[in-house]
Each structure stands twice: as C-alpha cells, then as structure tokens.
C-alpha cells in the first residue's frame, strides 16, 4: 500500500492556504490491486465518433489491453489496431465519486509521442445551469498534455462566459522537464473563491470567482474526475500522428481527493424519503473523528448513533440531518435537508407507489413537475401527446402492443422519477422496451440516488416504432418504498416501459451467453472451498462473493489467468447463509451459489 509521506503533507501544509487548517483524504485509488480498474470506484466511457474533438480512437470497455493495474500503477494504453471501425484504441474512465471544493491530486508519468493527448479533468454531475450541458455547467482541466508539445502541461477552465469556442478560455501552461520519463504531481485546489493549479506543488494558474453568476462560475457543485488518453483530434493531432510510438502509455501512480476546511463532510444519503421507512446516511471516516448527529424530532437512529454511518427511520415531518464532527484540527459540520414524501409536492401517478416486481410505463412518471419529478431539456411536448398535458416531457402515441404512449426525443442528462415499492431485498431483472434507429443510447437506474444498474446501452432496433426488449439481469435491490430515477446518459431512442422481475442466478448466464458453470467444492462449505471454471479466454477476471442482499463481501482480481481457472477461497470469516460467487471476465459472467455452514 502506498502511503502519503510526511514531506508531502508538510509541503502541502506550507504551500496551500486552502489546506493550512485541516486536510482530509476523502477518496483515493492507490492502484494496489492488479487487474482491471476497481469497478467500485471507476466506470468506463465507451465508443468512437470523435468525442467532439475529431479524435481518432475507440474507447474500449473493461479491456485490459487499454486499461489495467499492474506494478502498483494504472496503465491507460493507446494502441494502433483496427477495432470496431477505428484504427486506434484507448481508454477513458470516470470516477464514481464526486467532490465540491478541495484538492484533487494525481502522480503520473505522461505518454510520449506526437498524436497523443492525455488528460486529467473534471466534469459536473449536475445539469442545473443554462443549456443543461457544456459549457454552461463547467469543465475543469487540471492537466492536459499533447505529445507534439513535449514537457509542457496545460490547465484550463471552461464556462458559459469563458470557453475555447468563444476563444477566451481561461488557461495557462507550464514547462517542466522529464514529464515523459518520470512521475510528477498534478493538482487542483478549489474553494468558493478561486481555483489554483499546480505541478509538483508549484502554482502556475489561478482562476478567481468574480461573483457575476453561474455564467462565469458554475463551479459550486459536485464534479467527478476523468482520466483518458485520446489520439489525434483538433489539438492532439495538430501535427499528425506518429504511428511508430505505439503502444503509448499514460502511467498513473495514484489519484487522491482531499476536502477543504468546512466543506469536507458532504452527507451522503437520500433527500427524498417515505415516512416510516429506514434510510442510510454516511460521511467519510478519518482517524480520531467523533460524530454527533441531529435529526428532526420524529425521526430516529436505528442502531449505532455515534458512527460515520447511521440508519434513520423517518416520521412524517421534513427536516435537516445535521452532523458535527470533532477532529484534532477543529470541529466541522454539514447539513442535508430531507423531504418526506407526503410534503414533497411529488406523488405517484397511481396515488400509491408502483409495485416491484411489476411494469412501469415510461409515461407514468410521478406528479410534481419539472425539476421535482422529472427534468427535460426542452419546453413543451415535442410528441404532441395530451396524455400528460402541461408537462414538458416528450411523449407520443406508441405502436407497440398493449401500450398507448411512449417516451421519445430523449436527450443527454434528462431524467424521470417513479415512486416504487420493492417487495423484498433480492436480485431483479430490468427489461427495457426500446426502439431506435441509432447506436449508442444509454441509461441507468438510480434508487434513492444510488446507481443500481450501471450504464445500459440501448440497441439499434431498426425503427422508432420497431420495439425490442433490452434485458439487464440480476441487479440487487433493497426492500421498501423508494424513488426510482431513470437517467438518460445518452439520447437517441424511444422507451415504452420497464418490466422489473425477480431474478435467478441462471439469468446471468443467459444475458452473457455463458453456460459454463463454476465448480465449487465442497458445497455446503464450512471454511475453504476450491473454485474452478473453464474460461473462454485468458483475459483478466474479477472474482467476487455477494451476500443475499447483493452486497459484495469479498473481491479479488486475477491478471491473465489460464483458461482452466482454479483458486482456493477462504470463507471462514463469513456468517452462515447463502452467497453468490461470480467471475467477471470482460462481458462474460460465471456464477455459482454457495451454502455457508456454521
């Protein structure tokens, strides 16, 4: 495990006024476990199409040739190879964690060669300003490096008022030797007043909040981190691409995010709840922290009260979840305003929440209006349907069997919410009834603000009213009333309905066309089992064990195993019960059920 040296801490202490009071590590990846990047921390952005910059590469999904962890480093590797219509491959990953204010830091060795374009940058989670997208909601480029301009790093900040299209982007560069031959530290320090950009703790750009509004400063909300290496493009390819440089490697030692004083304790948890139901709220934990929670009078903590993670049973009143934390360097606080269903002015279209398992029609989203029950980028109903008169959601008459309406004209960042009641904590299958004439549409499902499905790609069905069912298998849901949000990651499709059904382990094999069984012996087991499986390839695998609620209780990555995969697994620390062992390899999943005794 890598550790932060005393020298580094002291250097930050003396060079950064933002962190002179208290520095708190809230998220990090030290890249200590070999294999694919940790899927609990990162997700892939996949595809070609130029990515708005005329880039040449195809960003692949969970492909070890382009993204892997080895020798304690993350390797993002660009290769010269024909792949799905592109002549180059690479990887682009984004963090599942986001931060508002703080220090974001990376130690990395940059790629060599004309035509490469490596970056460390941040993009907003929210779409609340202006056009709902770029540049109105901002972009923070902590480090950009183009291979034709060696040993020069760039930092830039984009907003509605200042961006490269307006030719007035706020940017600067710094020349520094050895960027391709050794590791250097790239960092952003960000608070309500300004952003400072560093290389090896030397500040070379500062951008100040002029308090003129979101047009120049949309940087007051959560941003997530993106790491990628493009090939060619409007900037990276200004002087062409040298095809002798491949494979080109962008090598990252670690990524760390630190909070800033007074803002480092964002409480994680739902802001919309049902009365008489239990929800989890949490903050990061650091050594020596003492936690003090305050709740509305008719809400109560279930279980341990002085922890960084609490379970709250809500009454009928809205109120604030307040947390104060005593630290060795001071006392800090955060507050989360929570609304109870009956006071939300958001109600189920059917009065009662939709039951799961069950069918949810796309047009039957909650009542409550734009910004509360849904978000749509355009005004009015492009589809001219009168089914939800007065709402800005685009609906039209549906030609699919047993349906009257479908959702259409969906765009990036739009969402719809549905009040649901999950029958029991179990695995479920999501069946999306979709139609499209294009490739690349994508959605995900959130339950109470937590992504439970991951990115779901929508197929080309051959027509806007040519309907197919996209099946997504075996996702863990928890029992109780919840807000289910359908989030449009990439538009370009129609949606009729979502059927949610109970799942079984056999569903996983159906989805991925893998009928190979995982052999587990002995089973039932008391302590140690031998796991074996006939893999279809030598690609990296992730082995994980989940309990009956779908919570991951054990995980290990294997780099390039043999096709006759065997390993010993100790389950002695787990309580008795039923567990599901899965072996994930690229887009294939192998599954077995384990019965743990004693």
Choose one word for the global shape.
globular
Poorly predicted ranges (pLDDT <50, ≥5 residues)? 3-21, 509-516
Helicity, in percent?
under 10%
Indicate the CATH architecture of the largest domain: Sandwich
Describe the structure concisely:
The chain has 598 residues and is mainly beta. It has 4 domains: 6-259, Jelly Rolls (Sandwich); 272-342, Immunoglobulins (Immunoglobulin-like), CATH 2.60.40.10; 346-503, Galactose-binding domain-like (Jelly Rolls), CATH 2.60.120.260; 509-596, Immunoglobulin-like, CATH 2.60.40.3080.
Provide keyphrases for this structure.
598 residues, 3% helix, 44 strands, Jelly Rolls, 4 domains, disordered N terminus, mainly beta, ten-stranded mixed β-sheet, seven-stranded antiparallel β-sheet, globular, Immunoglobulin-like
Walk me through this protein's architecture.
This protein is mainly beta. It folds into 4 domains: 6-259, Jelly Rolls (Sandwich); 272-342, Immunoglobulin-like (Sandwich), CATH 2.60.40; 346-503, Jelly Rolls (Sandwich); 509-596, Immunoglobulin-like, CATH 2.60.40.3080. The strands form 9 sheets. Strands 1, 3, 4, 5, 6, 8, 13, 14, 15 and 17 form a 10-stranded mixed sheet that branches. Strands 2-7-16-9-10-11-12 form a 7-stranded antiparallel sheet, with no helix packed on it. The longest helix has 10 residues, at 6-15. The chain starts with 5 loop residues before the first helix and ends with a strand.
